[in-house]
Amino acid sequence: QVQLVESGGGLVQAGGSLRLSCAASGRTFSNNVMGWFRQAPGKEREFVAAISWSGSSTDYADSVKGRFTISRDNAKNTMYLQMNSLKPEDTAVYYCAADGTIRGYSGSYYYQGRYDYWGQGTQVTVSS
After folding, report:
1. What DSSP element (H or E) covers 69?
2. What is the structure's pLDDT at 107?
3. pLDDT (0 to 100) of residue 104
4. How many CA atoms lie less than 13 Å away from 97 in the CB half-sphere?
5. pLDDT in tens, 16-37
6. Distance of alpha carbon 32 from alpha carbon 91, whole angstroms
7. Which helix (H) or strand (E) holds 124?
8. CB burial string 94-112: b at 16+ within 10 A, e below
9. Left, alpha or beta for 76 (phi > 0: left; psi -120 to 50: alpha)?
10. How far apart are CA 115 and CA 4, in angstroms?
């Protein structure tokens, strides 16, 4: 059974940092695009960041660019999201996702429908 499990969420003050992890099991995603999405209360789930299989290509939502860094360790089948300079508007449930198909990175990394596997989510709360 394929599973993605997020960890590292929590409560932090504005300006603080958190590091989210997404550990995959059941199959390897070392050749697949992976990404992070988030859903704030009362809002639709939105794209946060994506990373190519090698880690050489990354993309970010404008709202997190310069503050968040996505990375991966294929040997550990794990993806990360380093979040710095957190703001109250970053409060959301954060989900990791993996594309089940080996294909090119560009063009659709921000599209939720591309991703076949999703974690259960981890809550991030930023207090002002």
Report:
1. strand 68-73
2. 75
3. 81
4. 22
5. 999 999 999 999 999 999 999 9
6. 28
7. strand 122-127
8. bbbbbbeeeeebeeebbee
9. alpha
10. 12
